[in-house]
Design goal:
Oligomer: single chain
Structural class: alpha+beta
Number of domains: 1
Number of strands: 9
CATH class: Mainly Beta
CATH architecture: Beta Barrel
Strand content: 35-45%
């Protein structure tokens, strides 16, 4: 009888051990979760347009007037191995003869998905958005249909915050 109890105990321990080694669902990191909102599922991409924005200087709200040529630009984030990014001109050109690609490069999110980093080149002077600020953007909100990103610029004692709203297209 003692041998039977030992064998049963051994089998129970073994089954618990094997059960502990079974596949379990892995919770994606905040960055992985937000990446699919920003750029679509792995292997695809997502496009955005600016829908508006605000500006404040040292905490005092101001008026941010966006030229119509910025409002139809397309911001494409690719969910691929390189995490490619490109901003292209819409139908309304800011300057006749401008190249179609305004800025291009690669994007990344901070692990906690509160910042977006875009590195690359400006192809069109200073008309880009993500690369032109030379700083990571702070993600205020990101859903399947909308995104708000703040860019902070500090010059001496002056701090200016540009808050841009985007809509998925």
């Amino acid at each position: 009888m003692k041998k039977v109890i030992i064998h049963l105990s051994f089998l129970m321990c073994l089954s618990l051990l094997l059960d502990g080694c079974s596949k379990s669902s892995v919770t994606p990191s905040p960055a992985e979760q937000k990446a699919s909102l920003l750029a679509g599922k792995t292997g695809s991409f997502k496009q955005w347009k600016i829908s508006g924005g605000t500006v404040s200087s040292n905490g005092v709200p101001g008026t941010l007037t966006l030229d119509p040529c910025f409002l139809d630009d397309i911001y494409q984030f690719n969910n691929n191995n390189n995490q490619d990014y490109v901003q292209t001109e819409g139908a309304t050109l800011c300057t006749v003869g401008d190249p179609q690609s305004i800025e291009s490069g690669n994007w990344a999110l901070s692990f906690d998905a509160t910042q977006i980093f875009v590195e690359g080149i400006e192809n069109n002077g200073n008309q880009g958005v993500f690369i032109a600020f030379y700083e990571p953007g702070k993600i205020i909100s990101l859903t399947t249909t909308s995104m708000q990103v703040n860019f902070t610029q500090v010059s001496g004692t002056s701090t200016t915050v540009f808050s841009l709203s985007f809509v998925a297209i």
